[in-house]
Every structure is written in structure tokens, then in C-alpha cells.
Design brief:
This protein has a single domain, classed as Glutaredoxin (3-Layer(aba) Sandwich). It is 31% helix and 19% strand. The strands form 2 sheets. Strands 2-1-3-4 form a 4-stranded mixed sheet, with helices on one face. A two-stranded antiparallel ribbon has the order 5-6.
Length: 103
């Protein structure tokens, strides 16, 4: 399994998302190193299909793709938790399900 965390320097939440992702991978028994990919330009954002920081990809696919209409750009990404709150990082249960689907 390949796991990437794409981030932008203007958004500080990627480190919290990285900690959460590593914890979930450990708990699920997944032996994968997370590759950090810094996105530094809008051109790179389009090329990487980057919806904002942090974006987590598993096996090349966005682990939690947005519903649609989101532009590729240097921005902080917003996730909706299962409780209906806005969050700067994914809901851990949603991320855990994405990891399990990819195994």
C-alpha cells in the first residue's frame, strides 16, 4: 500500500493529520511509510489533483474525495466530521474506513 500526505506550507494542520494517519496505520497493522508531498504552486496543485492541505492519498487515490466542484489549489482543506462539524483534518473513522478499503 502506498500512502501519501500532500500538504501546503500555508496550512498548519498537516502535522496533526500526519499523526492521526500514522496512528491509524499502526492500529490497523498496515506496514506503510507515509510519503510527504509538499505542494508549492497552483500548477503543481492541478498536476497533483490537490484539493487542499492536508490531502491523503492511498494507492494514488484521494482517501476521502470531495463531493465535487472543488478546485485544485493552494488552500487549507476542510473536512466534515460524522458529527456534522467542520474540521481541518479528516474524521478518524472515515480515514480508518479508507485504509481498510485499500487493504
Amino acid at each position: 500500500m502506498t500512502v501519501e500526505l500532500l500538504w501546503w506550507d500555508g496550512c498548519p494542520s498537516y502535522s496533526e493529520a500526519l499523526d492521526q494517519l500514522n496512528q491509524i496505520l499502526r492500529e490497523e497493522g498496515v506496514d506503510a511509510e507515509v510519503e510527504l508531498v509538499e505542494v508549492a504552486s497552483d500548477e503543481q496543485a492541478r498536476r497533483e489533483r490537490f484539493f487542499g492541505s492536508p490531502t491523503i492519498r492511498i494507492n494514488g487515490e484521494d482517501a476521502l474525495p470531495p463531493d465535487g466542484g472543488e478546485p485544485y489549489s493552494l488552500t487549507c482543506r476542510v473536512y466534515l466530521t460524522r458529527a456534522g462539524r467542520v474540521s481541518a483534518i479528516p474524521d478518524p473513522d472515515d480515514l480508518r474506513e479508507a485504509v481498510r478499503r485499500a487493504e
